[in-house]
Write a structure and sequence with these properties.
single chain, about 90 residues, mainly alpha, 2 domains, about 0% strand
Length: about 90
């Protein structure tokens, strides 16, 4: 998947420019992005401040870490139950 050349802060600034009354077509043309990209960003980052995307990324990373921890513990639990059921 191709990564864009815009940071999250730049994306939020670009969307803020669009929210201040500048027509979307002008923002799109000025920054050289497609219409679909603009509206995808708007749905994802709309109404966000510059620090919020960074916090969102941190929360997503923490969530992924917790999911991996849960999967490991569930696997260990299943293995322990299997061993205990064989002993009986």
């Amino acid at each position: 998947m191709r990564k864009n050349g815009f940071t999250e802060g730049q994306i939020v600034a670009l969307l803020t420019e669009g929210e201040t009354g500048v027509p979307a077509a002008e923002v799109i043309r000025k920054h050289g992005i497609s219409r679909n990209t603009y509206f995808n960003w708007k749905s994802r980052y709309g109404g966000a401040t510059i620090s919020e995307p960074r916090r969102l990324r941190e929360l997503e990373a923490e969530n992924a870490k917790l999911k991996r921890m849960y999967a490991d513990l569930a696997l260990e639990n299943a293995a322990i139950k299997d061993v205990l059921s064989r002993k009986s």
